[in-house]
Amino acid sequence: GASSVLIPGGTACVLTGQPFDTMKVKMQTFPDLYRGLTDCCLKTYSQVGFRGFYKGTSPALIANIAENSVLFMCYGFCQQVVQKVAGLDKRAKLSDLQNAAAGSFASAFAALVLCPTELVKCRLQTMYEMETSGKIAKSQNTVWSVIKSILRKDGPLGFYHGLSSTLLREVPGYFFFFGGYELSRSFFASGRSKDELGPVPLMLSGGVGGICLWLAVYPVDCIKSRIQVLSMSGKQAGFIRTFINVVKNEGITALYSGLKPTMIRAFPANGALFLAYEYSRKLMMNQLEAY
């Protein structure tokens, strides 16, 4: 049901959004190499050509599908938990705030599947910079070579470098994500049922949710990228130490490098995601009622 619609929706999201995501990770990890989004695009194209924008696409696809499947699967379950905790009747509608709490709770489960796939993705996206800056030796630039090097160096737990920062990003982030989405839907519905909204308000609400998520947790995401990429060269630093180093050596603004491509991507990607989610949910409801 839901996942069958989320997969094409997620694939479309990743394929259109991947170049923006690559720019984001490069700018977050090496802000001193790029003056801005245009500079980063031009340099990437001149150094690695067009495929440079699509490095890490396969782990990004797996990450997107796995995260969204787990997220929306757990979201329904977490909504029931919130209903029980709040002592609501099974048929009672949750408030926007309660939905946001359920989404935040669900994202903790999603982080467990997301962390390893994002680690591989971020490392592939910044392989060129890591090699040219001499931080790592030249190596094969494939998904399998990255996976093998993680296993060889750190064993299976190596895939969870940056888990605490992934959780620090996901849990508050998805509170804002579902909160922004539900508040926007309430705004567009103005008195009517939220379930009657057409595709345009749904997409706009999804876009608003995405922008709320990124504005709230962007610095955390920036630190996560640093931890996941720089641990490639054997440097292990935790969240707090990495955060303090960045602020001390590069200033607060470094935490926001790469924000522009993220914002450009957030609106269409999350708009499409929620549209797919709501329509698949309606289809499932209709099928259940038919039985």
Automatic annotation (TrEMBL):
<keyword id="KW-0813">Transport</keyword>
<dbReference type="InterPro" id="IPR023395">
    <property type="entry name" value="MCP_dom_sf"/>
</dbReference>
<dbReference type="GO" id="GO:0061459">
    <property type="term" value="F:L-arginine transmembrane transporter activity"/>
</dbReference>
<feature type="repeat" description="Solcar">
    <location>
        <begin position="197"/>
        <end position="283"/>
    </location>
</feature>
<dbReference type="GO" id="GO:0000064">
    <property type="term" value="F:L-ornithine transmembrane transporter activity"/>
</dbReference>
<keyword id="KW-0496">Mitochondrion</keyword>
<dbReference type="InterPro" id="IPR050567">
    <property type="entry name" value="Mitochondrial_Carrier"/>
</dbReference>
<feature type="repeat" description="Solcar">
    <location>
        <begin position="94"/>
        <end position="187"/>
    </location>
</feature>
<keyword id="KW-0999">Mitochondrion inner membrane</keyword>
<keyword id="KW-1133">Transmembrane helix</keyword>
<keyword id="KW-0472">Membrane</keyword>
<keyword id="KW-0812">Transmembrane</keyword>
<comment type="similarity">
    <text>Belongs to the mitochondrial carrier (TC 2.A.29) family.</text>
</comment>
<dbReference type="GO" id="GO:0015297">
    <property type="term" value="F:antiporter activity"/>
</dbReference>
<dbReference type="GO" id="GO:0015189">
    <property type="term" value="F:L-lysine transmembrane transporter activity"/>
</dbReference>
<dbReference type="Pfam" id="PF00153">
    <property type="entry name" value="Mito_carr"/>
</dbReference>
<feature type="repeat" description="Solcar">
    <location>
        <begin position="3"/>
        <end position="81"/>
    </location>
</feature>
<dbReference type="GO" id="GO:1990575">
    <property type="term" value="P:mitochondrial L-ornithine transmembrane transport"/>
</dbReference>
<keyword id="KW-0677">Repeat</keyword>
<dbReference type="GO" id="GO:0005743">
    <property type="term" value="C:mitochondrial inner membrane"/>
</dbReference>
<comment type="function">
    <text>Mitochondrial ornithine-citrulline antiporter. Catalyzes the exchange between cytosolic ornithine and mitochondrial citrulline plus an H(+), the proton compensates the positive charge of ornithine thus leading to an electroneutral transport. Plays a crucial role in the urea cycle, by connecting the cytosolic and the intramitochondrial reactions of the urea cycle. Lysine and arginine are also transported by the antiport mechanism. In addition, catalyzes an electroneutral exchange of ornithine or lysine for H(+), a reaction driven by the pH gradient across the inner membrane.</text>
</comment>
<protein>
    <recommendedName>
        <fullName>Mitochondrial ornithine transporter 1</fullName>
    </recommendedName>
</protein>
<dbReference type="InterPro" id="IPR018108">
    <property type="entry name" value="MCP_transmembrane"/>
</dbReference>
